[in-house]
UniProtKB/TrEMBL annotation, chain A:
Residues 1-20 form the signal peptide. It comes from the Bacteria. Keywords: Signal. This is Tetratricopeptide repeat protein.
UniProtKB/TrEMBL annotation, chain B:
InterPro entries: Beta-barrel_TonB_sf, CarboxyPept-like_regulatory, Plug_dom. One of its GO terms (cellular component) is cell outer membrane. It comes from the Bacteria. It comes from Flavisolibacter ginsenosidimutans. This is TonB-dependent receptor.
Length: 218, 749
């Protein structure tokens, strides 16, 4: 009996320890996952990316921290590139993001969310030198986004990015604020019904969508 | 007791959780500059920090005991340091070393211009620039003529670089030599390059001091790199005033292999109808050109590529004869040509790389010359019998090359290999009496080479190489050392030096010789300064080139231009400037080239050392490009200038050569304009890509004189001018992407 009690106690202790470890992971992740939507400066995003990367490297078998580390890295590069496009600065960041994302992809293949970030990396590379790069990275970005849509047609971020492309592209190149609006509205509908698989799974984009909706001509 | 134990454990745990250690410090590079964004992590934990703009970091960890601190930053070598977290820690001071980085490292750029999409110091043009330069007429070498070092020679094909003749420039595709790169167009008319510029993703134009991997070129090497797998399966169609073209390129689903075929028919009849030519054509130039290719990815970094080209063309024209007034000179040419290039590159293990290639060229020219009377009948005129002839020239050429590359720590590498070249040039000359004279000349040239890239740091690099060549015809061996150095002066500026000895076999057209010959030899000394940003390039380069053992020719048994000795010599010196600017005016891109050249040589039948007729003292180009987004049209304008070139009439009098006349041609000016209308540009979901091209060469209709030719007796003299002053080209090119996105998605699932 004593033995059994002891075993039970050990078992309970162990499961508690596992739970504690899981809690530690989740507790570390949740505030950072929320920060993805609210962080907008390059240094802060790089700090966030490094934090995710630390978790990823400590855990090694979870795809989310690698995914977020890549996403924050891409966003940091976007913020930098928006002020002044400089391939020599943003290309190494794109390389870094791609390396992180590939690890996420290996742990969780065929994930719509990962293809969304693949698209963002291709666009990042293209934006550094559009004239000479759009032939290469334009189709790559397009294809990644189409794959993301195919893998999960309910993913609101697919339509958010499509809308952004339409929003930023000059009209003579096929951009259109009206079409952007339609896509943003579609993204909005998808956001209403979108349920992330877990509380640390990708669920970002609502604040970005609000920002763009506010920019659109009424 | 047990409960107590558990409680104890609990408290210890809580205490451990509460025990925190602060880790702080500063991270700098070896120039004592902070590295913002550098990351510090306690290994296998969540704890860490990121350096701020001053390189400082600070974070708190709950970890205990002996741990590893991991320091990383993009562009720097990461490292680990052992720490003990049981005691308070002093602030750290970390110094990080820059990672060897091809993008940041100094590039040996003396004598080298690169047109590619790679981000390198030597890359001053992009591959798109080659096709959008107005004066280039869609020809690779045409674009290179707007760079410093190349002459504006319009009366014959080829690149005349830094006082060198066209034969001193060799062209390589994927490492192997291309023979007969240009179409032959007839006396005093420059032929175009045979190869479509869209075949190449990179072009390296070396105006001297090039690598030991290449040889048999005294002055210059043009190294073309063909494209790898295409982006997608596509069909293309082109229609111009000169030609009709259709092609298909298939990429497999897995994107590991592709094949393609292209057919092109060119007929200058329509253009010659619209733009009057100096020549009177009885056979309008017409070309059939078939190209085929396949490319197979053999591994992550390995690839086999094949490219083949078959062409068949003919032309024939008459011009008023300078030798016999009221008579006509007839020239007729039939050419069949095939070129095959097979190359393989592969990574062998972690450090070794292999590049191997073989090319085969078969060229056949049937040339027919005659004097014609006013009724266009072939006639023989006393004293001018030599004008009636048939000349059948054949050429078989094989070139193979193998290069092994061993990577060393950092960016350093050592590479070595061998090259073998075989040429067989049989010809039959039939004179007016129908007597035939056969010649045949087989040559084997074998080379061994080794070279090493030595990167001391990202800022100092050297390339040291040697090439050993043996020529079966000369029965001689040479050793050609090459050396270049580059030093990075600042973030954007660098200086390079290059030195090398270059050998070349005597030109086949003057062979066989009556006495033993030697290799022609050139020694190059180059110094360069360059400042590059992503939007601006400034370059200044000075050079000295010494020629020795140049070929001297004479008249023997009534045969003009027969190789006599290797006693010729000469030199060339000068400086060149290049400035490219995409920054000053938004969406406007221009470059300016200037070359100063001072050269003299004694070769072929020159009486003594003189400035050759292909060398102008001052050469300059201005190339401007503007793409106007709202109308989706690119406007390109280029202006090429060359100062007066000398001309000579050299005659044989009593066994020695003398000038019977000499002078200078007027300065050369050429303004070309082209316009590309791309209605589909930027349409992301467009399945087709359309370009309309209008180009006008010599838009100001200026008179251009390249030199003078003389009648056989030296009595009459006539200016050598382009076949037409102005030339207009109109074309439309369509490319239809055959959408395989769906396939790609399916393949990914």
């Amino acid at each position: 009996m004593k033995k059994l009690l002891f075993s039970l106690t050990v078992l309970a202790g162990l499961s508690l320890a596992v739970k504690a470890q899981d809690d530690k992971y989740t507790n570390a992740m949740i505030p950072k996952v929320i920060a993805i939507d609210t962080t907008h400066s390059t240094p802060e995003l790089l700090t966030l990316s490094a934090a995710f990367e630390r978790i990823a490297d400590a855990e090694k078998n979870k795809w989310q921290p690698y995914y977020y580390a890549a996403l924050a890295q891409v966003n940091a590069a976007y913020m930098m590139g928006m002020q002044k496009p400089d391939a020599s600065k943003t290309d190494p960041m794109a390389d870094k993001a791609e390396a992180l994302l590939n690890k996420a992809d290996a742990l969780n293949p065929n994930n719509s969310e990962i293809y969304v970030v693949k698209k963002m990396i291709a666009t990042l590379r293209m934006m550094a030198d559009p004239m000479s790069r759009y032939m290469t990275y334009g189709p790559q970005a397009e294809q990644a986004l189409q794959t993301a849509a195919k893998l999960n047609p309910e993913n609101p971020r697919v339509y958010l990015l499509q809308g952004q492309d339409k929003f930023f592209t000059p009209e003579q190149f096929g951009g259109s604020k009206t079409e952007a609006k339609i896509l943003f509205e579609k993204a909005g509908q998808k956001f209403e019904t979108f349920k992330p698989s877990g509380n640390i799974d990708p669920n970002w984009g609502r604040t970005t969508l609000q920002y763009f909706m506010a920019q659109l001509p009424k | 007791m047990r409960l107590f134990f558990f409680l104890l454990l609990y408290f210890i745990q809580v205490n451990v959780l509460k025990a925190q250690t602060e880790i702080s410090g500063q991270i700098k590079d070896n120039k004592n500059k902070p590295i913002p964004g550098a990351s510090v992590t306690v290994k296998d934990s969540y704890d860490g920090g990121v350096a701020d703009s001053t390189g400082r970091f600070k974070f708190i960890t709950t970890e205990k005991g002996q741990k590893l601190l991991v320091v990383t930053a993009i562009g720097y070598k990461g490292f680990e340091q052992e720490i003990n977290l049981d005691a308070p820690l002093q602030p750290f001071s970390f110094t990080m070393k820059e990672e060897p980085d091809e993008l940041k490292a100094v590039v040996i750029s003396a004598g080298t211009f690169e047109a590619s999409d790679r981000k390198r110091a030597a890359a001053v043009l992009t591959s798109l620039d080659v096709v959008t330069t107005a004066s280039a007429n869609g020809d690779v070498t045409g674009a290179l003529k707007t760079l410093p070092g190349a002459q504006q020679v319009g009366e014959s094909e080829g690149l005349f670089v830094r006082g060198g003749a066209a034969a001193e420039t060799k062209i390589f595709i994927d490492g192997t030599l291309v023979n007969k790169f240009f179409f032959q167009a007839g006396p005093n008319i420059a032929g175009y390059g045979r190869f479509n510029p869209f075949l190449f993703k990179g072009t390296v134009f070396s105006t001297g001091g090039y690598s030991a991997l290449y040889g048999q070129a005294l002055s210059s090497a043009v190294i073309l790199e063909s494209i790898d797998l295409p982006e997608q399966t596509s069909a293309s169609l082109g229609l111009t005033v000169l030609s009709a073209t259709a092609g298909y390129q298939q990429l497999n689903k897995k994107k590991t292999a592709s094949w393609g075929i292209n057919y092109d028919y060119t007929n200058l009849g329509l253009a010659f109808g619209l733009v009057k030519q100096k020549q009177d054509y009885f056979t309008v130039p017409a070309f059939h050109n078939i190209e085929g290719n396949f490319r197979i990815k053999t591994s992550a970094s390995g690839m086999v590529k094949y490219y083949g080209n078959f062409s068949n063309n003919h032309l024939g024209f008459t011009t008023p004869s300078i030798d016999a007034p009221n008579y006509l000179d007839k020239f007729a040419l039939k050419n069949t040509y095939q070129y095959h290039n097979l190359s393989w590159r592969e990574r062998l293990g972690t450090y070794w790389r292999l590049a191997a290639g073989v090319s085969y060229t078969n060229n056949k020219d049937n040339i027919n010359g005659a004097l014609q009377d006013a009724s266009k009948k072939d006639v023989t005129v006393n004293g001018l019998e030599f004008k009636n002839f048939a000349f059948d020239k054949r050429g078989h050429y094989v070139n193979t090359k193998v290069v092994f590359d061993r990577r060393l720590p950092g960016l350093s590498a050592i590479r070595f290999g061998s090259e073998y070249n075989f040429s067989d040039d049989p010809s039959v000359y039939t004179d007016y009496t129908n007597a035939s004279y056969k010649t045949s000349l087989k040559q084997h040239t074998t080379a061994l080479f080794a070279e090493s890239d030595i990167y001391v740091t990202n800022n100092v690099a050297a390339k040291v190489g040697t090439r050993l060549e043996h020529s079966s015809y000369l029965d001689k061996t040479n050793i050609a050392p090459r050396l270049s150095l580059a030093y990075k002066l600042g973030k954007e500026s660098q200086a390079s030096l290059a030195y090398g000895i270059f050998y070349q076999n005597p030109e086949t057209q003057y062979l066989p010789a009556v006495s033993p010959l030697d290799f022609s030899k050139a020694t190059h000394y180059i110094a360069q300064y360059q400042k590059t940003t992503s939007l601006q390039v400034f370059r200044v380069e000075g050079f000295y080139k010494k020629y020795e053992q140049l070929l001297k020719t004479g008249t023997l048994y009534n045969r003009e231009g027969q190789a006599l000795s290797s006693n010729g010599f000469g030199d060339a010196k000068g400086f060149e400037l290049f400035w490219r600017d995409k920054k000053t005016v938004k969406n406007f891109d221009y470059w300016v080239s200037y070359s100063y050249l001072d050269t003299k040589r004694d070769y072929l039948n020159f009486p003594f050392a003189i400035t050759p007729n292909f060398a102008a003292k001052h050469t300059a180009s201005l190339v401007m490009k503007k793409f106007v987004l709202p109308i989706k049209t690119g406007f390109n304008l280029s202006y090429n200038y060359a100062s007066s070139r000398p001309y000579y009439n050299i005659v044989n009098s009593g066994g020695s050569y003398k000038f019977s006349d000499r002078g200078e041609v007027p300065d050369y000016h050429n303004v070309s304009f082209s316009l590309n209308y791309v209605p589909t540009v930027g349409k992301k979901d467009a399945r087709s890509f359309v370009v309309y091209v209008l180009s006008v060469n010599n838009i100001l209709n200026l008179k251009q004189t390249y030199g003078y030719q003389y009648s056989y007796d030296g009595v009459r003299k006539e200016a050598i001018v382009p076949p037409s002053r102005m030339f207009v080209f109109i074309g439309a090119f369509f490319s239809f992407g055959i959408d395989r996105t769906q396939d790609a998605i399916n393949a990914n699932l």
